[in-house]
Specification:
By secondary structure, this protein is an alpha/beta fold. It folds into 2 domains: about 10-210, Spore Coat Polysaccharide Biosynthesis Protein SpsA, Chain A (Alpha-Beta Complex), CATH 3.90.550; about 215-310, Serine Threonine Protein Phosphatase 5, Tetratricopeptide repeat (Alpha Horseshoe), CATH 1.25.40. The chain is built from 11 helices and 8 strands. The longest helix has 22 residues, at about 220-240. The radius of gyration is 21 Å and the shape is globular.
């Protein structure tokens, strides 16, 4: 059988989907409304099931790729989309977010003006489940040293705000699925280590706040986030020793938060003690970790009648 040649487009839009048909259809409508027309649309569904998929309202020409079995992370869906993408640029859209009409045009223009840049990201506005603006909105703050800041934290709120040059992805690799929960930050850091990035202060994305978001499921994403920080620390020690102290502090603080949650919320003192001791080994001067270690160790020596929620505020 002859292979069918799919025409290339300037932008490949990759939308990851899982069991939120109503949100997805709103996201797809925001793609359709873009002023920049030279694009392909790839929707990757993570095995939501036939009943859910039948509710998707795909625009003409869109490609739907369905995982045969649940892969369990947006990183896996984005990688599937990247393998199928043919555009010079790639833009990601989560199913629960919305693009404003000029988003693609502004980012294509930014990357064409700065051909050395690997990717661009824009500001976003927080909205509720019904797309009403939230009362509190974060201010846009340009980052003078993106690599240093990404070692410390992910200042790019959502992948829906990012457009990446495909050649840079081919150079630096796709999303690392082993660090689910931190895969976007890991990729932005790998790209920023080699190339400049372009920040757009205009809010071009509506970031929907709702209870089903992954960041509300801290326990599920915890292992991947810690592995991501460990990976960052290993890189800094090997290639950027000037950033290694910052990476150690960041990992130490994350392990402290894990230990606190394990002890106060999950009634898992032994695991909490292991985590807080790792935190202390990375930063011996971490006073909160030292105090928590003492309290957990003391609790293990004597039975407690307090509930886990009463142990740590």
């Amino acid at each position: 059988m002859n292979n069918i040649e799919v025409p290339a487009h300037t932008v490949s839009v990759i939308v990851s989907a899982y069991r939120r048909a109503a949100y997805l259809n709103q996201a797809l409508e925001s793609v359709r409304a873009q002023s920049f027309a030279d694009r392909e649309l790839i929707v990757v569904d993570d095995a939501s099931g036939e009943e859910c998929v039948r509710q998707y309202r795909l625009p003409p020409g869109a490609r739907l790729i369905i995982h045969e079995s649940r892969r369990g992370s947006a990183a896996a869906s984005r990688n599937t989309g990247l393998s199928a993408a043919r555009g010079e640029y790639v833009a990601f859209l989560d199913e629960d977010d919305i693009w404003l009409p000029g988003k693609l045009a502004a980012q294509v223009n930014a990357l064409e003006k700065q051909p050395e840049a690997a990717f661009t990201y824009c500001h976003s506005r927080d909205v509720d489940e019904s797309l009403r603006p939230c009362a509190k909105q974060a201010r846009f703050r340009p980052c003078a040293d993106p690599v240093r800041e990404l070692v410390k934290r992910n200042f790019i709120k959502t992948p829906s705000s990012v457009m990446v040059r495909r050649s840079a992805l081919e150079e630096c690799g796709f999303f690392d699925e082993s660090v689910a929960g931190a895969a976007d930050r890991d990729l932005w850091l790998r790209l920023a280590r080699r190339h400049p990035l372009v920040a757009l202060s205009e809010p071009l994305v509506l970031y929907r706040m709702h209870p089903g978001q992954l960041h509300h499921q801290e326990r599920l994403t915890r292992p991947g986030r810690i592995r991501g920080l460990e990976k960052t620390l290993a890189w800094t020690e090997a290639e950027r020793p000037d950033l290694a102290p910052l990476a150690r502090r960041t990992l130490s603080h994350a392990l402290f938060k894990v230990a606190r949650a394990q002890w106060s919320e999950e009634n898992s003192a032994t695991d909490a003690l292991d985590a807080v001791r790792r935190a202390r080994s990375l930063c011996p001067w971490n006073l909160p970790a030292r105090m928590l270690e003492f309290r957990i160790a003391f609790s293990l020596r004597r039975p407690s009648t307090r509930t886990p929620a009463e142990r740590v505020q």
